[in-house]
């Protein structure tokens, strides 16, 4: 009786290690091609950063037109500060947009607490993969800024930038 139990435990351990461990399903185990044009091989969430430039092409945070510490991004009734990256060279003085769910994601952006102007950002996403260990993997399908569709520039793998000129 002892031998069959040991064999059963060994088989379970081997099968779990082949599919990511802990009973996790391999990425791309689900065929989502009918729902998106994005690659099934996408293994990470696409991220979005916003760059604000003045008419001369200067970053408005770098030239102190706006204080990066005063920027607020709101979504789903929650408001976040410390959204401007001040440290990473690749994304320095850019605003990070996070917290996607599948479909329409709406954000408000205020560059200054003394300004009454609030920018509107809408990000449409698709789940390109789901893993029971890591959760959903999102791809950005389209972006609207103040109700106008915008083009994104890929600045590195999985990182897209929207440039706004004020």
Number of strands: 10
Derived from helix and strand composition plus strand pairing, the structural class reads mainly beta
Rg measurement, Å: 21 Å
Q: Would you identify the regions where 5 or more consecutive residues have pLDDT less than 50?
A: 13-21, 25-42
How far apart the termini lie comes to: 76 Å
The pLDDT mean sits at 82
Q: Strand-residue fraction?
A: 35-45%
Indicate the percent of residues in helices.
Answer: 10-25%
Q: In this structure, how is the largest beta sheet organized?
A: 6 strands, antiparallel
- Lateral arrangement of strands in the main beta sheet: 3-2-5-6-7-8
Number of domains: 2
Question: Can you count the helices?
Answer: 1
Query: How would you spell out the order of helices and strands?
Result: HEEEEEEEEEE
Structure report:
With 166 residues, the protein is mainly beta. The chain has 1 helix and 10 strands; from the N terminus they run αββββββββββ. It has a 6-stranded antiparallel sheet with strand order 3-2-5-6-7-8, with no helix packed on it. Strands 4-1-10-9 form a 4-stranded mixed sheet, with no helix packed on it. A hairpin with a 2-residue loop joins β2 (72-75) and β3. Mean pLDDT is 82; it is low at 13-21 and 25-42.
